[in-house]
Amino acid sequence: MPQQLPLGVSLRDDATFANFFQSPDDGNRQVVGMLQAFASGQSPEQAMYLWGESGSGVTHLLQSACQVAEATGRRFQYLPLTDLIHADPEQIVEGLENLDLVCIDDLQEIEGGAHWQTALFHLYNRLRDSGRQLLLGARKSPRGLNLTLADLQSRLQWGLTFQLHPLSDSDKLGALIQRSKLRGFDLPEDVAQYILHRAPRDTRALFACLEQLDRASLQAQRKVTIPFVKQVLNI
C-alpha cells in the first residue's frame, strides 16, 4: 500500500499530468514525459530536480508524480517543506529510504536551516544507496540555493535538473479553457479573457477562481458568463 501522508499533508485531486497545460512549443513537454516515466518507475534515473518561479507548475508536477506513484501501487511520500520546515527534520525523513519515491517540494525553505540540510544530505545518500528515487522541487536551481552545507549542494547537482518556464498570457488563456473542460463546464473565450485581465495573474490564483466559479455555477445552475463572473468573483 502507498505510504500514508503525515501531518495533514495531502495531494490535490486536480494535480494531474492530464491537466498540466502545455502549449505546442512549450519547453516543458520533454520534462513532463520524462517525469511520467520517472514517477511510474520506468526510468533508470534516481534523482530529478525541478525548479521555476512561483506559478510555473513545480508543485503541480511533483503532486502529479505522486498521483502516478499511487496509481501504480508504488510507496511514496510527498513533503512540502513550506508546511513542514518547523518540524523535526530527523523525524520527518526517518525511514523514507524504504519507499520507492520521495518527493520534496519547496526546497528553498532549507536555506539557512543547518539541521534540515544535514538531514536531507543523509537522506539523499540513503536513497541513493538503496536504489530509491528522489524528486525535488524548488524556486531556485541547485547552484542558486544559498546552502551552508556544500556537500548537499553538490549532491543536488548529481541528478537531472530541469527549469520550468511560466505560462505566457496566451498560454494562461488556453490553460483556463482546458481546465474548465476537464472540470466539466464550458468557459467561453471572452469570459476567460475577462478573468485573465481582472483576476490575479498567478496561475494558482486563476485556477482557484475557476474552482470557485465551478462550484457556484453548479449550485446556481447557471452558465459561466461575464455577469456571473462579476457576481461570484467581485471583479
UniProtKB/TrEMBL annotation:
SUPFAM superfamilies: P-loop containing nucleoside triphosphate hydrolases
Gene3D superfamilies per record: 1.10.8.60, P-loop containing nucleotide triphosphate hydrolases (3.40.50.300)
Key words of the record: DNA replication
All copies of domain Chromosomal replication initiator protein DnaA ATPAse, residue ranges: 13-162
A GO biological-process term: DNA replication initiation
UniProt domain Hda lid: residue ranges: 169-233
Name of the protein this chain belongs to: DnaA regulatory inactivator Hda
Classification of source organism: Bacteria, Pseudomonadati, Pseudomonadota, Gammaproteobacteria, Cellvibrionales
